[in-house]
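User: I'm new to structure prediction. If I give you an amino acid sequence, what do you actually give back? Let's try with this one:
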Amino acid sequence: MARTTPDWEPESEEDYEVARSELKERFARWLAVVGIESRGDDGEAPIHYKWAYVDGHLTRWTRRDLDEIYLELHPAKVMVEEDDLDQVLEEGKNFIGFLDETGLLDSESEPADVLVDHLDTIEKQFRLNMADASRYSFGKRLWTTAVAEGVRLDDRASVEAFMANFNARPIAERDAILGPGLPPRPAATGRFTPPGTRPRAPSAKRRKRRR
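Assistant: Good question. You get back a string of structure tokens that encode the predicted 3D arrangement of the chain. For your 211 residues, that looks like this:
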């Protein structure tokens, strides 16, 4: 039986998981063919943020999309070591190159070379925004504090102990970290996104938006 092409603008969580898995699998194969070393979980960030927070179309890209993902969402949500920041934008460039070379880049996208050049253009601002703690979401503030205190976010017991300790701290101390009136959540989830800022609910109106 012929393999069905996924819907690259999925409307449901189930369809998204199918499209996400297929796109990541194809991306991994392309990286191997062109001789680019895989860093693991390749494509997860652009795919996840495009669907959950932008317009939901996984293969249609514009410079505005890149700005939203790398200058707004990453500084707010993504915890990355300074030495690894180059890899974040490199993944974006490789992903756009993959879509273009495999014919998956949607016809309503801006040209691939324009998109890749734009990632070079915003590199300095990306680094500045990633270092700007005022841009951090509630979740990123919480888990940045945890990591600074030696907590391993992949260690459930360590996370639970941190949360118990954090909840027991004076309100003023918690507010100084999170901002007033923001209750902590119990655990970190996901590869990049600690709890604190939820994705906007998918809607047909939002996804059909043209830039």
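You can read the tokens as a compact description of the fold. Here is one thing that stands out. The CA atoms of residues 121 and 184 lie 37 Å apart.
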